[in-house]
Amino acid sequence: MSEENLEETAEETAEETAEETAEETAKGFGQSDGNSQIRFKREGENLLLILPEEGDRSENSNSSSWGDLLQVMKHRITGEEHSWEEGLEVHLVSPNRLLDSRQLQDIRDILTSAKLELKRVRTGRAQTAVAAATAGYSVDRESDRDHLNQKERERTTVEAEPLYLKMTLRSGVEIRHPGTVVVLGDVNPGSSIVANGDIIIWGRLRGTVHAGANGNLQTMIMALQMEPMLIRIGDQVARGPENPPEEFYPEVAYMTAKGIRISRATEMGRVKLWQISKAPSDDSL
């Protein structure tokens, strides 16, 4: 047999082996039962890409690496079993898997090759939420309470840990978090933050913010420069001033008996005393 024939045979064998490996790995990840698989699910006009939870592979499957996961993802997205619309918006769902910026870029590259667009990341991990927000994706931060039933939620009153973001939120980015959100940067017009706790902006607030999204009227919104498009606390809504002031200083928005009020941050002590005086006492319960 000639050297050329040997090389061609070796290349064909390598290609066949790679294809078989991808298919076998796909069976381990994508065709098993339970939460041990990569799943796709339509949600309205969007596509959910659901990653398997860490440490939740089936017993019959071999241990996996990140490379294996990407290989299966690419195999399933480009496979004949799916026909996606071009430009379809994808929401990545990864409740407990820790993802960094490089891994998010890996997922984005695979989706882009299939003409799909990664827009939002749903995660229960703070590090993943920060990496996703820094990369410019909208973020839904879940808490452990989101997976509890109603009775368990009623017994669980601990609020999620604060989410710290050292970045500027660009237009189109939305951050959702079940606790307090602290942004060391600006919140630009067209961006938004929804939090069950307080919202603290160490910069200019020019977007839309909603504190106390779970109905907590004791929450506050603070910013070094308050120029919001829209402010919400609980179920109350207020619009930003049409004419910005000549001089800016740190301000805080909070609830009063007459609705949302904005005061200088130096009045914070009086604000807290007012809220404490209005809060129900244990005797009234």
Word description of this protein:
The protein is an alpha/beta fold and 285 residues long. The protein folds into two domains: 125 residues, Cell-division inhibitor MinC, N-terminal domain (Transcription Regulator spoIIAA); 124 residues, Pectate Lyase C-like (3 Solenoid). It contains six helices and 16 strands. The strands form two sheets. It has a ten-stranded mixed sheet with strand order 1-2-3-4-5-7-9-11-13-14, covered by helices on one side. Strands 6-8-10-12-15-16 form a six-stranded mixed sheet, sandwiched between helices. A hairpin with a 2-residue loop joins strand 15 and strand 16. About 15% of the residues have low confidence.
SSE string, helices as H and strands as E = HEEHEHEHEHEEEEEEEEEEEH
- How are the strands of the largest sheet arranged? 1-2-3-4-5-7-9-11-13-14
In the predicted model, the low-confidence regions spanning at least 5 consecutive residues are 17-35, 56-63, 144-158
- CATH level-four homologous superfamily name of the largest domain: Cell-division inhibitor MinC, N-terminal domain
**CATH architecture descriptor text of the largest domain:** 2-Layer Sandwich
